[in-house]
Amino acid sequence: MSKTYDIVIAGGGHNGLVAACYLAKAGQSVCVVEKNDKVGGGVMTRELTVPGFKHDVCSVAHTLLQANPLLRNDELELKAKFGLKYINPDKMTAIFYDDGSTLEFYTDLERTCQAIAKFSERDAEAYRRFNHQVFQNLDMLVMGMFNTPPSASHQALIMEQSQVGQELMRTQAMSAWDYISEWFENDKVKIARYASEAMMNPFDNGTGFGFYIILPLMHRYGVGIARRKASACSTCTPSAPTTSRAAPSAGTRSAKRWHTPSSTTCASSPPTWTTTTSSASPG
């Protein structure tokens, strides 16, 4: 590479791209290196089946991101300037059982409780009580999720000072299934709860916090299904591809390099920057 950068980010997934945009907004020159022909990682959209039908490659919804200042305050102007839009359907998720019954979760907490009551009145009340308990701590948890965390020892010391902190530490150490079983009695409700979580084994210790945070956060902030992706920045024009010699490696690989624009008007633009191709070969 003939040009030098303040920051080089390996991988053009959504985390790398967001980090790159914030760094560019702060005045740093950034190079994002991606081996695929398209950036985006888990949030890419592609035609995977037949022409004209577009699919999410990995993500179904951008749920946790809805609470992030990136979107809440539109810090990179992805909404105001580049047209990013989200929809939040009333119905968040549904579980279909072998006997033909269904359990539906809605953005509205009370409608969800009514749906759970078809299977268990006790569990419906427990679900309502559980969410209100999490709501009391949700602002604190969201703040912690999107700020630099303290060291593990300092965090443990802080959390040990309060009953809420001690309960959170216990939740973090438990399996999701054990924590679910403390709150609910009906097997269908239990299955629906852990089936709605991230792709992890609900019987593994340390998964309890996923159960604790996901659905209450969706009730508060919505599901977050992208309706329109951010458009390209009009001031970023592609340059012709160039090839450069890279360090020796076992095999031949190619990568795209996305460069942040030098113009300050593009500091907060989405990562649709000029590209070059870099090839690596043995020796």
Multimeric status of the protein:
single chain
Total domain units:
2
Radius of gyration: 23 Å
Number of strands: 10
The largest sheet, given as strand count, sense and whether it forms a barrel, is: 4 strands, mixed
Class inferred from helices and paired strands: alpha+beta
Question: What is the share of helical residues?
Answer: 25-40%
N-to-C SSE string, H for helix and E for strand: EHEEEHEEEHHHHHHHEEE
What's the helix count? 9
Topology, element by element:
Elements: E1 7-10, H1 14-25, E2 30-34, E3 45-46, E4 55-56, H2 69-72, E5 85-87, E6 91-96, E7 102-106, H3 109-117, H4 121-145, H5 152-159, H6 163-173, H7 176-183, H8 187-195, H9 208-221, E8 225-228, E9 253-259, E10 275-280
Parallel strand pairs: 1-2
Antiparallel strand pairs: 2-9, 3-4, 5-8, 6-7, 9-10
What can you see in these coordinates?
The protein has 283 residues and is α+β, with helices and mostly antiparallel strands. The chain folds into two domains: 7-85 and 227-280, no CATH class; 89-222, no CATH class. Helices cover 35% and strands 16% of the residues. It has helices at residues 14-25, 69-72, 109-117, 121-145, 152-159, 163-173, 176-183, 187-195, 208-221; strands at residues 7-10, 30-34, 45-46, 55-56, 85-87, 91-96, 102-106, 225-228, 253-259, 275-280. The protein has a four-stranded mixed sheet, covered by helices on one side. A two-stranded antiparallel ribbon has the order 3-4. Helix 1 links the parallel strand 1 and strand 2 (30-34). Helix 3 runs antiparallel to helix 4 and helix 4 crosses helix 9. The two termini are 17 Å apart.
